[in-house]
Amino acid sequence: MQRTLLMIACICMALRGLAAVTGMQAGVGRAVITPDTQPVWLAGYAARTTPATGMLHHVWAKALAIEDGDGKRAVIITADVLGLTRELTTIICAQLAAKHGLTRQQIFFNASHTHSGPVVWPSLSVCCAFTPQDQQHVVTQNRMLAERMVMAVDHAVATLAPAELSLGYGTAGFAINRRKRDIAPVDHTVPVLRVSAPDGTVRAILFNYACHGTTLQGNNLLINGDYAGFAMLELERAYPGATALFVQGCAGDQGPEPRGTVAHAAAYGKTLAEAVERVLAQEMKSVAGALRTAFTETRLSFRPVGLDVFRAELTGSNPFRQRRAERVLYAFNAGSPMTDIPYPVQALRMGETTVFIFLSGEIVVDYARRIRRDYPHPDLLVAGYCNEVQSYIPSLRVLREGGYEADDSMIYYGLPGPFTDAVEASVLDAVATVCRQLGLTPTSRGE
Ligand SMILES: [Zn+2]
After folding, report:
1. C-alpha 255 to ligand 1 mean position (Å)
2. Which of 40, 148, 201, 258 is within CB 3.0–4.6 Å of 52 for a Cys-Cys bond?
């Protein structure tokens, strides 16, 4: 009996000493990003014509700073918005470089893609029939958003302290492939990163799932984080003092169903939180070792479209096509025709086996499945909606099938038309580039 107790005591002491052994440190920060001035225009549904009338719960920016034993850092910033823009991330990165010496490749952004969060200008500006005053008001609110995101990182860096990181996987089944085609892949994986203090107290829970934040629809005028917002609240109630960070997955073609009510959003939030809690209750794999980060940018080309198409749209009756045509023709007349867009891809490697791939845009689920197949050894988290959300990113399959994610959505993003067939290879090449920089080689590429 005494010997057993002694052994348990030794194991406990060994576990407590783990953080010191791994040398990992982590810090967490958060800030409310619900605009404090009125009106608040919500992003996500072109049919909305009036601003928010109130809120269900606050929307947040949250930051997790991680540092390895050699002092190398990475910061993951999540925000309950539809998508971030290059305009905003550029401002934030400049401030984080000046304040904390962080380089671009050390700063990882993810948007939850809630369709009930504040507009981030100029994303989807084609959907907004704003007056110049409305536009100026939103830009001013976005300045506050940038300040709050920097504040969240300030706090995360200031609270860096010895930590134990561990990873596990669960599943949640409420996302469906909303295209409902013959081939309708889904990704129900729920990767979970737990960050604990040396005494075992959970400080942060980062979790990932691929599903549009569209449980609440265009008739909803209450600010909230959709199912992901409810899931984070649920986890923060279950783990007092911990910060829950939701990282959106490759959800371009993934959505919740049935949907439409606050009760649906709360129920999906609970389902996801329970999936995360089941992972936290099991044995998780320790994450420790050197932090490595990589960032690259490729370009995705559009199929050529004759200007006559846009001249016709300009005089048509569809206001979204009119505004898209104005943008396309303005760019052409200014001497910089829209032929392609930049596409950032980023990766974070922690120790030998844990790799987070951060893909931008509304990228469809095929990419997550393909990357898992190509890189089967590491413990992977594949996120979409990272850094900036510039358009939908179809796979070749989705592009060839056509439909909203391949084509029609380009109207609302103010872009000239579908990508060329090179889109998938361009994205996967960029993934291969960052993985190579992190010492990973694909095992089944080209199959
Ligand atoms: Zn979307």
Report:
1. 9
2. 40
What single DSSP character describes residue 391? S
Q: Are 75 and 45 in a shared domain?
A: yes
Query: Which domain covers residue 327, as residue numbers?
Result: 303-333
Give the tens place of pLDDT for each residue, 40-88.
Answer: 999 999 889 999 999 999 999 999 999 999 999 999 999 999 999 999 9
Pairwise CA distance, residues 121 & 83, whole Å: 10
Q: Are residues 194 and 58 in the same domain?
A: yes
Helix (H) or strand (E) holding 295: strand 291-301
Q: Residue 442 falls within a domain, yes or no?
A: no
Residues 89, 192: one domain?
A: yes
Number of domains in the chain: 2
Is the pLDDT score of 155 beyond 60? yes
Verify that 193 and 314 share a domain, yes or no: no
For residue 385, pLDDT over 70 is answered with: yes
Stronger pLDDT, 328 or 443, i.e. the higher one: 328
- 272 alpha carbon to ligand 1 midpoint, in Å? 19
How many A from CA of 124 to the centre of ligand 1?
Answer: 11
Q: 63 alpha carbon to ligand 1 midpoint, in Å?
A: 23
User: What is the distance in A from the centroid of ligand 1 to the CA of 3?
Assistant: 59
Question: Does any domain span residue 418?
Answer: no
Q: If residue 344 lies in a helix (H) or strand (E), which one and from where to where?
A: strand 340-350
Cβ neighbours of residue 14 closer than 8 Å, sequence gap 6 or more: none
Ligand 1 centre distance from Cα of residue 211 (Å): 9
Tens digits of residue pLDDT in 27-50: 999 999 999 999 999 999 988 999
Pick from 158, 175, 134, 354: which is nearest to 259 by CA?
Answer: 175
Q: Do 55 and 177 sit in the same domain of this protein?
A: yes
Distance from residue 375's CA to the centre of ligand 1 (Å): 27
Indicate the pTM of the whole model. 0.94
Q: What separation in Å is there between the alpha carbon of 291 and the centre of ligand 1?
A: 31
Q: Considering the chain, what is the average pLDDT of its residues?
A: 94
Distance 87 CA to ligand 1 centre (A): 20
Q: Report pLDDT digits (tens) over 185-236.
A: 999 999 999 999 999 999 999 999 999 999 999 999 999 999 999 999 999 9
Structure tokens at 440: 């990973």
Q: Is residue 50 part of a domain?
A: yes
Hey, which residues does 357 pair with through a beta bridge? Answer: 347, 382
CA of 301 to the centre of ligand 1 (A): 20
Are 202 and 327 contained in the same domain?
no
Distance 253 CA to ligand 1 centre (A): 8
In-domain check, residue 47: yes
326 with 225, same domain? Answer: no
